[in-house]
Design brief:
Layout: E1 4-10, H1 14-25, E2 29-36, H2 43-57, E3 63-65, H3 103-113, E4 118-122, H4 127-135, E5 143-149, H5 164-168, H6 170-177, E6 183-186, H7 188-191, H8 198-207, H9 210-229, H10 238-247, E7 252-261, E8 272-275, E9 286-292, H11 294-306
Helix pairs in contact: 1-9, 1-10, 3-4, 4-6, 8-9, 8-11
The protein binds beta-D-ribofuranose and calcium ion.
The site of beta-D-ribofuranose has 15 residues, from α1, α5 and α10.
């Protein structure tokens, strides 16, 4: 079976780190490049984090720096991942440099080379993807689908209405959802179920490699941040869910919906409005993840981590 060509767009971020490992190590994927955006932290930090993760995990994939701020609004960073974006994770200095080419140019160039074959997996704010679509609308010809982590039909996590990645750049998200490309929204309705409970953590620890230790250390630090937020019994691996879906769509249950993003700057700024039943009279433009097959998800992740 041919490998699936993917670009992973990240803002690391503890769960982005696991998404990078899954995309780079799983044999089903051909990871063409890692593009980085500002989100969980400022761009300088997220780029360094991506480079340091790759170095530590022996991942030989080019890393491209992208947009340093949202299209229109002021920058917002996350508190969950700490000052560094990867608080609590000890990684050495990066062995490779960031590429000279801008992430947006790289996405455009790769899409030009592909004929409806390229899958974009953005797991941070959608600024890089929207910018690529604005700059070169013909990239839709090269892109098979966009599988993004972001949004929520139910409650948000940065405001009652909005999920973090969409809230950071709602205008970019709106461009992506209305691009005409097939979009799968892997949002909080599904990813909030991807809690790393102790038995899963022990399975990862049991792999006993340098990479599994990095994941365990990271999950302990990230888990502490989640615990401080309230009722969470473990860290939540949002971003790997999107990568896992590309590897094996049966990992997630999805429903067709019409999705658009609220861009008016009120209480619901950044909300993904999801309509499963054509209440608004608009045909579906997306699939929305609503559930997870836990066994498949963790088996798939652990298999990838064992490929070290
Ligand atoms: C998303 O926000 C970020 O903090 C995570 O990395 C994930 O992409 C979850 O809302
Ligand atoms: Ca992220």
């Amino acid at each position: 079976m041919d490998k699936i060509k993917v670009i992973l767009d990240v803002d690391p971020g503890h769960d982005d780190m696991v998404a990078i490992l899954l995309a780079a190590k799983h044999p089903r994927l051909d990871l063409r490049g890692i593009t980085v955006v500002a989100g969980n932290q400022t761009l300088d930090k997220t780029v360094q984090n991506a480079l340091r993760i790759c170095t530590h995990a022996g991942i030989d994939v080019p890393v491209y720096a992208g947009m340093s701020r949202p299209l229109l609004r002021d920058q917002v960073v996350s508190t969950v991942h700490g000052e560094s974006g990867l608080d609590g994770v000890e990684l050495g200095p990066p062995a490779r440099q960031v590429e000279e080419q801008h992430a947006v140019d790289f996405i455009i160039e790769e899409a030009r080379k592909c004929h409806k074959e390229l899958v974009l997996i953005p797991v941070g704010p959608l600024t890089n993807i929207a910018m690529a679509l604005l700059r070169e609308p013909r990239i839709v010809e090269g892109i098979k689908e966009i599988v993004l982590m972001g949004g929520a039909c139910g409650q948000g996590n940065i405001t009652p209405s909005a999920e973090f990645n969409i809230f950071v750049d709602p205008e970019a998200a709106q461009i992506v959802f209305t691009s005409g490309l097939p979009v799968t929204m892997v949002g909080l309705d599904a990813t909030n179920q991807a809690v790393v409970y102790p038995p899963v953590l022990e399975r990862i620890r049991g792999i006993g490699s340098r990479v599994s230790k990095m994941v365990v250390d990271s999950m302990l630090a990230y888990g502490a941040a989640y615990k401080a937020l309230g009722d969470w019994e473990g860290p939540v691996l949002h971003d790997p869910c999107a990568v896992a879906y590309v590897i094996d769509p049966s990992v997630l249950k999805v429903k067709k919906a019409w999705v658009d993003v609220e861009t008016a700057r009120g209480l619901t700024y950044g909300r993904t409005v999801c309509d499963y039943s054509e209440t608004a009279g608009k045909p579906a433009n997306a699939q929305v993840a609503v559930g997870i097959d836990h066994k498949k998800l963790w088996d798939l992740l652990i298999y990838a981590l064992e490929q070290d």
